[in-house]
């Protein structure tokens, strides 16, 4: 199906999110002389892009002999809510057109947002009809909606809306090598060795400043999360210095994203145990050596087993990440990785679906991860196998450009949920973030808004702006 889109709204980018879900069944023809799909939003005062908030808006989607129209009642809505509602209905109508013409139904229907469980929580709290809203309006299928509902239920006892609580994030955007699927702002260690020592020193000063901020603001810290990058890419001495600097912040959970097996040593595990770390990640992504080499992981599957065995000598909860749809992996390849992870019995298993992101090596190489059948088969198997092994799903999120319009889902053994994962994905808590690329948030539930303050992404720029970073953060949280 070749699609040439015309619209009188400012929602073109949102419509493209829907169209991309149907690739390769739909091909967008750019710069075409004639358009064959029309989306028109109109009211008594004119088009949606320049109205002065009418009571109703008529949306029409037309393609060849297919025409559907719907009246959206937005009486009493403010401008932001009105446009949001019209956009949402327009996207559903476009989804219906493409689904009918391609004979493809997607597990998340027209839902393209990053946080489906957040929307479910909010809809259930406001209207009490979240399940019906997802299935009947958003076209999310029954199995996916049940999964979303189950995750929300499994967050009971952790999910909260307490403005007096916060999380503490430390970013170390450094890796020993860059994986081909990675789009994070992280630097390869070999290329920035001259920056590491001064970066660690400045990061420690920011941590100390933010520890004082926690005391002054009166926040109760729920969780500490050290991420990246790969924090354990640092030398043993630098890693010890950073983790030791965090000590003194009382919290319920302390996670370090160790990630790469080739960066984990006994000395680093000793540091984490001494400093009160409660949870770490050892992320295989795959247990297939050929794939590890293809994506640039620079370690073997045998190292995963060796490091995991060593880490189990300590009292850490351990998470393992896997990715479905890595380059050239078959269903059996992915199934093997899932089965191996289950045999090791970590406390958490997180299954990601490959997303091709701007800036990643796979994007630059024009790798095609589209299609529905294979990623759906992979993810469905992981869900059955992991839940069959006694785990339950407890958080999820979606990304653009994901295979099959699927998701990333975290599973836990009983009582082993990661607090930080729930807090950040549901956007329920303020986050005090340190390090290059760290994004602090203030959540105001009573006002229904979130404010953000981002540190510079690049290590070099971060190093140049220390005084401004500390001053801005003090003002932001005061």
Q: Could you explain how this protein is built, in words?
A:
By secondary structure, the chain is α/β, with parallel strands linked by helices. It folds into two domains: 103 residues, no CATH class; 303 residues, Alpha-Beta Horseshoe (pyruvate-formate lyase- activating enzyme). It contains 16 helices and 20 strands. The strands form five sheets. The protein has a nine-stranded mixed β-sheet with strand order 16-17-15-14-13-12-11-8-18, with helices on both faces. Strands 2, 4, 5, 6 and 7 form a five-stranded mixed β-sheet that branches. Helix 3 crosses helix 4, helix 6 runs parallel beside helix 7 and helix 11 packs parallel to helix 13. The chain is globular and about 70 Å long.
What class would the helix/strand composition place it in?
alpha/beta
CATH architecture of the largest domain: Alpha-Beta Horseshoe
**Number of DSSP-assigned strands:** 20
Helical run tally: 16
Overall structural domain count: 2
What is the C-level CATH assignment of the largest domain? Alpha Beta
Q: Kindly, what is the distance between the CA atoms of the first and last residues, rounded to a whole number of angstroms? A: 55 Å
Query: Taking Cα atoms only, what radius of gyration do you get, to the nearest Å?
Result: 24 Å
Relative strand content? 15-25%
Order the strands across the largest sheet as they lie in space.
16-17-15-14-13-12-11-8-18
CATH superfamily of the largest domain: tm_1862 like domain
The helical percent reads 25-40%
- Unreliable parts: none
Give a short account of the largest sheet. Answer: 9 strands, mixed
- According to CATH, the fold-level topology of the largest domain is pyruvate-formate lyase- activating enzyme
The coarse overall form would be globular
The overall average pLDDT, rounded, is 91
